[in-house]
Amino acid sequence: MSLCLGTPAHANAGGTNSAAAPAGLSGEALQVAQWIHATQDNRRLPYLLVDKRAARVHVFDAAGTLQASSPVLLGLARGDHSVPGIGERPMSAIAAHERTTPAGRFLSEPGNNLKGEDIVWIDYDAAVSMHRVRTANAADRRLQRLASATAADNRISYGCVNVPEQFYNRNIAPVWGKKPGVIYVLPETQPAASFFGFGTARAR
Fold it and tell me: Which of 41, 48, 66, 135 keeps 20 to 30 A from 181, CA to CA?
């Protein structure tokens, strides 16, 4: 499998260690990547794996070769589903326990937020996107959370996936910022194999 044969020199451009598993993936992320490669579930599109338990994103080309990896920030609340209708509510009306990053297979699309900033939509209806980390609220300590050695403090957003700016500009914007791709967000409340349907019966 191509992702296990080696990792480009910039694969840790977000600043984390890659010794835990082949190509820096957790065991579960590697399992999902192998399933995608074996079934061509990405339909010849480039894809991303967002590993919520590890708070990392892994970037793959259409052939399944790992290109880069980075830490990310995720929704404050743990859970694998968005609250129905949450994308139509103002942020001020979203409670802490509703700030989840939904798991699933998403066909991404490039877009812009209300400020005109380029983003990548993960789930448009739920208003969940991937974008550069935002640092306007110093109390959130988002840059420090990204730089920490643990994933335990990477839960802070309203559900969107926050990526280091340099990593986003280099690895996300040139591809997913221009055309559709596939984004797999791994679950955290059940095994990925059952959630995506390549282990036990698919979760409903």
Answer: 135
